[in-house]
Amino acid sequence: MFVDWERISLLADPNDPEEQVWLQDTIQELVLDLNNKMENLSSLLNQKKVEDLQSSLHQMKGVAANFGFELLAKQTSQAEDFFRTSQFEKGAELVLQLKTTWENTKQELKTKFTL
Q: Which of 8, 81, 10, 76 is nearest to 37 (CA)?
């Protein structure tokens, strides 16, 4: 499981149509933003911009944690730590794994949201 559905359910009242519309819109925007961040990670990795990688991973970690994307939050945190401690190769390997984790997370989101 890539999404903590209990966490998602706390974001909007399931009996309030307006809140459900808000949640749908928020998830759609979040997916677009994280898609862009994933593409940006590849570029930063190729350019070996470690500080920018750390910053982007930190932002992604916060978003993932807040929305209950547990494995994505864990992996972004680990990758950020690798880059912070000058373990570039380990961080780079994890960034490559993040792409698969994100794709799997999106597939799970599609079971309940229109993306």
A: 76
In a domain, 7, yes or no: no
H helices then E strands: how many in the chain?
Answer: 5, 0
Distance in angstroms (rounded) separating the CA atoms of residues 10 and 68 = 10
Domain contains 8: no
| Digit-coded pLDDT (tens) for 34-63 | 999 999 999 999 999 999 999 999 999 999
Q: Is residue 35 part of a domain?
A: yes
CB 3 within 8 A of CB 27: no
CATH number at residue 89: 1.20.120.160
Report the pLDDT value the prediction gives residue 96, as an integer from 0 to 100.
94
Query: How many domains are there within the chain?
Result: 1
pTM over 0.85: yes
Q: In sequence order, which residues have a C-beta less than 8 Å from that of residue 41 and are 6 or more positions away?
A: 53, 56, 57, 95, 98
pLDDT at 35: 96
